[in-house]
Amino acid sequence: MPGHRDRQRRHPAIDKAYGKIDRRPELDKALDYLWPGDTFVITRLSRAARSLRHLLDLAAQLREREVHLLVLKQGIDTSTPSGRLQFHMFGAFDEFLRELIVEGTLEGLASARARGRVGGRPPALDAHGVEMARALYEMKGDDGKRRYTVQQIADRLGVSRATIYRHLNPDKPDKA
Q: Average of pLDDT values for 119-135?
């Protein structure tokens, strides 16, 4: 049992991350707060763990610390034998469904690629726009300096300065 803590009511812990990730800082904080005999309440199993392995690890950790789990959406209460059985069954079903969704998504993306569809945002400038941006950038004034600033070129073409710079320096790798 961790050191003495004030047992005041706290706000719910909410992790703002999506996908299959291991680090869940708000979940970890909430788990650190629990004492033996407490009940850890979550809305659904899929919100607390991203895989059956992680779910089973969480269950073992809670059981070791003598903390019960209450899952509101699935009506699971691990303080009872039938609740523990439900917990394991629903955990396995959740992982199965997640894998089906991932499989379907990957098949859909492959099918779209086979039909020539590519995901992502369309380019801000087509080949003609890139050519125009480069020509405007290379234009010199009477004083020998550049006639247009990058901002002026971007405004004229209706794009951001970053888009202009990206096309003026095609060899420079993107930060992303």
A: 90
